[in-house]
């Protein structure tokens, strides 16, 4: 495996950290998807960024393109064009993971061209933002609330770190380190600095990545500052607005809970506002808690997690039902057909859940990460890697489809970079332990007990619940291996070197914890039962009463018109009916769940009638939610009516 890792910055009580991209190779379920991103999506993203005019904006050697995307109605300070640096940052990150997967000189040359343009753009003082250097010069750092300067920096930082790990090239990482030093000189504690932070959290988690990659504590310290400062009084956004001659009350979203800046982070206990901003912030909080051993952040993080997952999370792992604020409304407001559930929000939930695992293996976080990954996030990318969902309803009348691009193209590179880097979410490394959070065919080289430990997974997961893990430490070593036992699993059979393990006695927080001296070639096998579950919603989610959602393993299923005919709401599952799995060739071999049910029709043909509806036998076929809208157009339905038991 390639090795491009600098020494990591050591926090006082740092716990589990994810491996870098060069430490993991994935096959199995995700392997072909990573290959598609590497071969198709990475180029597609750059093509569409450049077609939109992004390279024209960042390259000072090109004619200035001026304003191409108008300011948003209702918020005269914002144009999505000011986010373009973030789109390039995520696209560079995707390309980096693609290059690690498979060398591609043409793709690498394209990324280097973009990086060279940023090098030419960067100011002598380190400042780097194409919008404020070329489109609105003279206005830098005047509106952190709305205008995304630090958010843009964060995504460029993440792209820079990924590109370094994948290729060994550190030009962009050095560019971004200089920019971060400029930011640190302007924002922070002290008379010469401003107590500012970004309206769209993201830089916090990016700075932790940069600190881990470079070993520089100052980057971690700045991440901690941005987390700690958020929401404090006097409120920075009020003062900032007055300085630019604006009324602080003249704000499109009216209240700072939209951006989770309504109170200090340690006092927050409800997920509010814009969904993506929320999960990015909580990701940064969890990273800071891990790196600094900061236990004071844990109560807020745990309360926020409970509020989301117990009252506001879709069965697909999406969240944020409202298009108005791209976020939260009120508890149990989880409509299906009008669900917003932005792809970026599900991606951000994967980030947050993964970082909560930095505090130690806990199934509730890994299960949510898996749910969001396989369903609410993965649905955002078509099987051919060229089309994308922005919002993700759980019911469609046949008019909702993926698009090729968007004037706010945040979701395409976000889901692409997640899929391409999925191996880094599978494991956690600690000084005396390693954790396996996700199961997938592949190989990882992890750092534990002061040495390299190769972990090989052999499995057809998620099609099958059998997993064989082989551990090859460089030499005999004592550490704990944590293996997640998903909540959806039925019975579990586990062995160590062929001998049965007493799984219940070894299970802690939903993980099988095996502490021993490991020898090269030691093998653990897991066999999870994968029943088809009929999930039922809390009665307070009114739209889902009398309905069930189907889940097998980590996959949530849906009905499509192409398999079941129109009027999907006329179908009823029979209570207790058995399911069989059938491969669907046009969906990459994904398994469909097939069972027998009934179709209901109005007896009189009238819109309303006192007559009982007529019912006839029907075969019902459900496919994985992530795969819908890859075939013929038509209706889609996640929550299926169930015939009452007799």
What does the radius of gyration come to? 25 Å
Question: What is the overall silhouette?
Answer: globular
Biggest β-sheet: strands ordered side by side in the sheet: 1-5-6-7-13-9-10
Overall residue-averaged pLDDT value: 95
Secondary-structure arrangement, i.e. CATH architecture of the largest domain: Alpha/alpha barrel
Low-pLDDT sequence parts? 1-13
Name the helicity range.
25-40%
State the helix count. 17
- The end-to-end span amounts to 60 Å
Q: What's the β-strand tally?
A: 22
Number of individual domains: 3
CATH topology of the largest domain: Glycosyltransferase
Q: Indicate the structural class.
A: alpha+beta
- How would a textbook summarize the main sheet? 7 strands, antiparallel
Share of β-strand residues: 15-25%
**CATH domain class name of the largest domain:** Mainly Alpha
Can you put this structure into words, describing what you see?
With 646 residues, the protein is α+β, with helices and mostly antiparallel strands. It has three domains: 402 residues, Glycosyltransferase (Alpha/alpha barrel); 102 residues, Sandwich (Immunoglobulin-like); 110 residues, no CATH class. 33% of the residues lie in helices and 19% in strands. The chain is built from 17 helices and 22 strands. It has a seven-stranded antiparallel sheet. α3 runs parallel beside α6 and α8 packs antiparallel against α9. It is globular and about 75 Å long. It starts with 23 loop residues before the first strand and ends with a strand.
């Amino acid at each position: 495996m390639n090795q491009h890792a600098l020494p990591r910055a050591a926090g006082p009580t740092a716990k589990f950290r994810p491996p870098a991209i060069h430490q993991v190779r994935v096959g199995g379920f995700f392997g072909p998807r990573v290959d598609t991103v590497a071969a198709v999506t990475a180029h597609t993203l750059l093509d569409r960024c450049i077609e939109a005019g992004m390279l024209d904006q960042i390259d000072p050697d090109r004619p200035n393109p001026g304003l191409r995307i108008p300011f948003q109605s209702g918020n005269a300070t914002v144009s999505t064009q000011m986010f373009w640096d973030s789109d390039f940052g995520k696209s560079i990150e995707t390309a980096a993971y693609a290059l690690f997967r498979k060398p591609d000189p043409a793709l690498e040359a394209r990324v280097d061209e973009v990086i060279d343009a940023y090098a030419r753009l960067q100011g002598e003082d380190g400042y780097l933002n194409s919008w404020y250097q070329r489109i609105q010069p003279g206005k830098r750092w005047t509106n952190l609330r709305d205008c995304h300067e630090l958010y843009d920096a964060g995504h460029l930082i993440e792209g820079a770190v990924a590109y370094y790990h994948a290729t060994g090239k550190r030009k962009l990482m050095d560019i971004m380190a200089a920019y971060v030093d400029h930011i640190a000189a302007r924002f922070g504690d002290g008379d010469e600095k401003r107590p500012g932070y970004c309206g769209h959290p993201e830089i916090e988690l990016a700075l932790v990545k940069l600190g881990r990659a470079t070993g520089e504590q100052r980057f971690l310290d700045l991440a901690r500052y941005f987390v700690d400062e958020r929401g404090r009084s006097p409120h920075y956004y009020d003062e900032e607005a007055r300085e630019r001659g604006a009324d602080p009350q003249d704000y499109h979203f009216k209240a700072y809970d939209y951006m989770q800046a309504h109170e200090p982070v340690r006092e927050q206990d409800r997920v509010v506002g814009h969904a993506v901003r929320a999960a990015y912030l909580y990701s940064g909080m969890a990273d800071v808690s891990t790196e600094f051993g900061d236990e004071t952040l844990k109560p807020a993080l745990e309360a926020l997690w409970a509020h989301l997952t117990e009252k506001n999370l879709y069965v697909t792992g999406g969240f944020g039902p409202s298009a108005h604020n791209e976020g939260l409304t009120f508890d149990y407001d989880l409509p299906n057909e009008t669900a917003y559930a932005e792809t970026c929000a599900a991606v951000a939930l994967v980030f947050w859940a993964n970082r909560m695992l930095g505090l130690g293996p806990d199934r509730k976080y890994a299960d949510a990460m898996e749910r969001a990954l396989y369903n609410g996030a993965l649905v955002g990318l078509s099987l051919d890697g060229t089309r994308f969902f922005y919002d993700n309803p759980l019911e469609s009348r046949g008019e909702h489809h993926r698009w090729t691009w968007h004037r706010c193209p945040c979701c395409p590179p976000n889901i692409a970079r997640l899929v391409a880097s999925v191996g880094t979410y599978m494991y956690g490394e600690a000084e005396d332990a390693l954790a396996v959070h996700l199961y997938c065919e592949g190989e990882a080289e992890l750092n534990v007990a002061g040495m390299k430990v190769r972990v090989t997974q052999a499995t057809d997961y998620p099609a099958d619940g059998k997993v064989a893990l082989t551990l090859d430490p460089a030499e005999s070593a004592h550490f704990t291996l944590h293996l997640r036992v998903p909540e959806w699993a039925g019975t579990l059979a586990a062995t160590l070197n062929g001998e049965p393990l007493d799984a219940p006695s070894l299970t802690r927080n939903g993980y099988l914890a095996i502490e021993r001296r490991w020898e090269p070639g030691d093998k653990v096998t897991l066999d999870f039962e994968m029943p088809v579950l009929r999930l039922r919603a809390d009665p307070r989610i009114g739209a889902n009463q009398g309905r069930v959602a189907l889940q097998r393993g980590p996959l949530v299923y849906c009905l499509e018109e192409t398999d079941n005919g129109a009027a999907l709401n006329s179908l009823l599952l029979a209570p207790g009916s058995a399911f069989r799995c059938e491969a669907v060739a046009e969906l990459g071999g994904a398994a469909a769940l097939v069972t027998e049910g009934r179709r209901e029709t109005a007896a009189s043909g009238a819109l309303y009638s006192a007559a009982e509806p007529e019912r006839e036998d029907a075969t019902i076929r459900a496919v994985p939610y992530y795969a819908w809208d890859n075939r013929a157009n038509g209706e889609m339905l996640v929550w299926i009516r169930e015939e009452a038991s007799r």
